[in-house]
Structures are given as structure tokens and as C-alpha cells.
């Protein structure tokens, strides 16, 4: 989750986390220790964010201009443009290598300071740093919000589902834009296969997502653990009371790439 950018924190903290991971894997610094690739220690998107943005050329509205551009692209002008692109890509790759080397050197210096720290200590320190994020323990889903409390939609957000509340985050921001305790949620469910509806008091929030069922199941799980009555989804007949088997809650940050499985039929054993 750290490497995929789902733990918003400072670059300095990300370097410290990488150093703690090295200490956990290899113990004290040594030039002979096996060294993971940088992308296995540090979020690649942070390095890419340092690079200058690609130049943007607005599309031509004139048909004649587009035709002339197409003709030129097939001749010497096209060859010149291809050469410029290749040179630009080479410069960006070189800049990325420089940024990567600089970051790795900073991580190694922090690793050297951890000499004598055992693996359990390194792991505990790693988790303690990650837990500083208020959203720690939430399951995060990438969603597009169409009814936004903070402005016109659609808006790309993180939907964080935790044990006590549902929160909306701007990607990469540590503090939520809004947060709803379960007592404020009046209903929720699937409007269709790719739209999830969450009704909070007097407003409806519509999220476009590919993980409608996973979000619904997780909300049901937390509501059940809180002693709340399960809310049926639209056009879903009420089910019989759940079995007495204890609910297993997610521990720590749950990877978005490995969502919760669909709820098994009532009466079957839980996975």
C-alpha cells in the first residue's frame, strides 16, 4: 500500500520507511547485502512527479491546418518531431535515473543510522510510522463521485471504509474531505453494476466504481460488527438473520488490488 501511494505522508517519512524495510530484510548495512530495486522500497510515482510535465499542444480546429500538419508529418517535419521526442524521452529517462540515485543514497544513509536494530523493532517502527496517518486501518477504493459535497462532480476520490466511519479523501491528501459515522448513514446499495449509492441523512452520494459488491459487503460487515441491522440493497429481498459465526474484520490497510470476496449465501460457511 505504501509503494502504491495509498499512505499519504511526506517524502522524508517514505525514505525512513524504506530504510526500515531494508533493516528488516538485511539487518545492518553492508555493501555485500542483497539490495532490492528502488521501486520495491519507494513509491515510483513520487519520482515521476519531480519530472517536468510534457508540453501540451491544443488540437487544431481548422481542417486545412490539420491536413497540412498531416502532410508535413509524413515528411521531413515528421522526422524532426520524432527526433525531438526521442531526445526529450532520453532526457527524462536520464533525469529519472538521477532522481532515483539521489533517493537511494538518502535511503542508504538512513539505513546506516539503524545499526543494531533487530527485525521485530524495525517492523514495529515501520507500522508505528504508517499508523500516524488518521486513515490507517481503512480499506481504500478508487471512486468517481458524481454528487460531491465539496464541488461539482465527477471527482476522483478515495472512499475509505473503516471500523467507525466512511471517509472521502482527495488522493494523496492525509485529511479527509468529509467523514460520516455509521449512525448518519440511512441507506446504501447498488444503483447499477458500476454505481454505488450512499445516503447520508438528507443527501445521496453516487460513486462510479468497479467494486460495488466489495464496498457493499464491507459496509455490511462493519454495520453488523457495530450491532446495527443490515440494510437491504435496492431490489434485494431481505435475507434471514446472519449466522452466529463471528465476523472477521480487516486488519490494517487492506489492499485495493485484493478486495473482499462476495458474501456467501446465508447458511454457508464463511471463507
TrEMBL record:
InterPro entries: Actin_motor_Myosin (IPR051724), FERM/acyl-CoA-bd_prot_sf (IPR014352), FERM_2 (IPR035963), FERM_central (IPR019748), FERM_domain (IPR000299), IRS_PTB (IPR002404), PH-like_dom_sf (IPR011993). Residues 1-233 form the FERM domain. Residues 229-271 are annotated as: Disordered. Residues 234-244 have a biased composition (Pro residues). Gene3D superfamilies: 1.20.80.10, Pleckstrin-homology domain (PH domain)/Phosphotyrosine-binding domain (PTB). This is MYO10 protein. The lineage of its organism: Eukaryota, Metazoa, Chordata, Craniata, Vertebrata. The gene is Myo10_2.
Amino acid at each position: 500500500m505504501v509503494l502504491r501511494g495509498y499512505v499519504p505522508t511526506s517524502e522524508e517519512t517514505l525514505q525512513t520507511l524504506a530504510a526500515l524495510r531494508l533493516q528488516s530484510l538485511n539487518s545492518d548495512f553492508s555493501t555485500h547485502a542483497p539490495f532490492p530495486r528502488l521501486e520495491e522500497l519507494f513509491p515510483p510515482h513520487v519520482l515521476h512527479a519531480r519530472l517536468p510535465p510534457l508540453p501540451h499542444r491544443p488540437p487544431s480546429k481548422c481542417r486545412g491546418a490539420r491536413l497540412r500538419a498531416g502532410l508535413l508529418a509524413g515528411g521531413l517535419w515528421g522526422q524532426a518531431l520524432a527526433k525531438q521526442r526521442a531526445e526529450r524521452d532520453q532526457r527524462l529517462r536520464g533525469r529519472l535515473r538521477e532522481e532515483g540515485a539521489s533517493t537511494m543514497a538518502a535511503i542508504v544513509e538512513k539505513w546506516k543510522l539503524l545499526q543494531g536494530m533487530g527485525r521485530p523493532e524495525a517492523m514495529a517502527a515501520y507500522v508505528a510510522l504508517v499508523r500516524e496517518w488518521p486513515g490507517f486501518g481503512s480499506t481504500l477504493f478508487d471512486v468517481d463521485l458524481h454528487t460531491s459535497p465539496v464541488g461539482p462532480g465527477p471527482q476522483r476520490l478515495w472512499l475509505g471504509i473503516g471500523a467507525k466511519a466512511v471517509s472521502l479523501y482527495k488522493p494523496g491528501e492525509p485529511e479527509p474531505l468529509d467523514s460520516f459515522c455509521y449512525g448518519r448513514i440511512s441507506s446504501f446499495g447498488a444503483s447499477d453494476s458500476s454505481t454505488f449509492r450512499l445516503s447520508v441523512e438528507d443527501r445521496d452520494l453516487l460513486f462510479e466504481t468497479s467494486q460495488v459488491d466489495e464496498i457493499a459487503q464491507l459496509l455490511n460487515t462493519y454495520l453488523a460488527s457495530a450491532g446495527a441491522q443490515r440494510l437491504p440493497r435496492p431490489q434485494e429481498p431481505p435475507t434471514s438473520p446472519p449466522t452466529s459465526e463471528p465476523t472477521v474484520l480487516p486488519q490494517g490497510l487492506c489492499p485495493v488490488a485484493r478486495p473482499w470476496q462476495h458474501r456467501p449465501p446465508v447458511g454457508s460457511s464463511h471463507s
